[in-house]
Amino acid sequence: MSQTAIGSPTTGGSKAAAAPSSAAGQSVNKRLQTELMTLMTAGDPSLSAFPEGDNIFQWTGTITGGAGTVYEGLTFKLLLKFPTSYPFEAPQVTFSTPCFHPNVDQYGNICLDILKEKWSAVYNVRTILLSIQSLLGDPNLDSPLNGHAASIWHNVPEYKKALLKHKSAHTAEPRRP
């Protein structure tokens, strides 16, 4: 019986099955377009994000370290991958720029509750970027992905030294003529 219903001309065959996915994709596309416009008009120089090429489901984001933190003056790139169920499911967000931080592992994965179990459809790209920016200066030391960074967090001079060493180890030396 179900086989007849799926393939019958009255239900549109496989096109009917694909329609919800296509409609969902259009809805997500519209939501992401709106979020892009909001970000562009917000005028916040400390964060930005744009789709990579024509793929609205994959963005490159940029955040700068907050004033008064050990990350002040540093800029980090992030990769945001949006599922077709966005905003009802969190995007996958990782650091593209190596980041020495208690809640970031060597692969750029981020331990942040709003990207996992505390995700809500009311969050958007801007709130994600702001949350990660805030996390830089205020890590969750109870849930570290980088134990070494967590262990030296409270020793600011040692932490800053390790942060800059990590950054320089992952930055190509400029060529001199």
TrEMBL record:
Start-end of Low complexity biased regions: 7-25
The keyword ATP-binding belongs to this UniProt entry's keyword annotation: yes
Keyword match Iron: no
Span of domain UBC core: 27-172
Region feature (Disordered): 1-26
Active site feature: 111
Keywords on record: ATP-binding, Nucleotide-binding, Transferase, Ubl conjugation pathway
GO terms for MF: ATP binding; transferase activity
Highest taxon above the source species: Eukaryota
PANTHER family, alphabetized: UBIQUITIN-CONJUGATING ENZYME E2 (PTHR24067)
Protein family: Belongs to the ubiquitin-conjugating enzyme family.
The protein's name in its UniProt record: Ubiquitin-conjugating enzyme e2
Organism annotation: Chrysochromulina tobinii
